[in-house]
Amino acid sequence: MYSVPKLEDYSPEALDTASRELLEALEQESAAVQDEAECKALRDRWMARKNGILTQINDVWLKAAPSASKRQAGQQVNQLKKQVEGMVEVARKRLLFREMPATEIDGEMVGKPLVEIPVEALDSWLATQKLAAERIDVTLPGVHRELGVRHPVLRTMDEIVAVFVAMGYSVAEGPEIDSDYYNFEALNFPPDHPARDTQDTLFIAGQERRPQRDRLLLRTHTSPVQIRTMERLRPPVRVICPGKVHRNDAPDATHSPVFHQLEGLCVDTNITLADLKGTLDHAMKAMFGSSVKTSFRPSFFPFTEPSLEVSISCPFCGEKGCSKCKGSGWIELLGSGMVDPAVFGFVDYDPAKYSGFAFGMGIERMTMLRHNIDDIQQFFLGDVRFLEQFS
Ligand SMILES: [Zn+2]
Question: Would the pTM of this model clear 0.85, i.e. be above it?
Answer without folding.
Answer: no
